[in-house]
Amino acid sequence: MPELRVTPGRYQGRTRLYVTLPGGPAAAWYDRDSGQVSLVLAEYRTEVLDALAPYLSGELSIGPPPVPTPAELALLTLHPDDDLAPNRPGEALHTALAGIAVSRFRPAPRRAALNALAAQEALGAELDTLEGAGWRVLHSVPLPGGGHIGHLLIGPAGVLSVRTLNARKRTVRIADPLVAAGRGQPEPQLRWARHEAERASLALATAVRPVLGIVGAARVEPAARAEPVAGGAGGRGGPGGHGSRGGHGGPGGPGARPDEAWLLREGGQVGVRLLRDGEVGALAGLGGVLKPADVESLYATARDRRTWLRV
Fold this sequence. Notes:
- By secondary structure, the chain is α/β, with parallel strands linked by helices.
- It has helices spanning 45-52, 70-76, 91-98, 108-128, 189-204, 292-302, and strands at 5-11, 14-20, 26-31, 36-39, 61-63, 136-142, 148-155, 158-166, 171-175, 178-181, 208-215, 219-221, 227-230, 260-264, 272-275.
- The strands form 3 sheets. The protein has a 7-stranded mixed sheet. A 5-stranded mixed sheet has the order 1-2-3-4-5, with helices on one face.
- The two termini are 40 Å apart.
């Protein structure tokens, strides 16, 4: 009897467990919300139920799956080792921490990695709440050269590449492309965010807008060129579109509204959306760019590790 593998995943905001053969093809999946076990390979019914036994609860419905969409067909042929959907927020940092020795003489490297991981997890948990609003979320997408896209959002308002900045209760000052937290050294965070979005756009062959997620900031002070826009991935024209409303002093400044987003533009470059604590929910009601079928098709492409090998 082949040893089947059980891998968690999500589909249209629902939790699933995929049961795959050693070679990679899916034999079945279990939808925890509905209690439905969908058998793709009926001849493995007994083996599938044995593999799922530790996870099953309540009444079950067992039978063939509904007619799959093209995105589902692509998923069924995806080897578990190439599937990025199970990646946790900060997955790459978990790996890095395993290689950093605990030392009371040099605690700084490990402390910095732990702080970065906490920020990734905090933002990732917020982004995961969008799954129920038609969005799909991937974390820690690996790029050639050892880099990663912290979070990738695919939903009704388009595709967003999210870079995380851990502010740690400090004031964040922005002068495109530089960003400084407290007295820390300014870094070209906005340039890095744009570059990651460009690489994602090449991989997915679609427009991808850059986002800088600022976690735990006491205050955010943007450059004078920052433009307040309606609280979405974009105004007219989709993510990153222009729909400015003036009259505020900047994120965190006098008169700032929690439901506003901010795009930073310098020298005609692509605007980078600032996403501060508590603003993720504003994305849930946005749309007008991608239909549900397009979201699922792009998600199926994005979750395949091989998609990112040449960017």
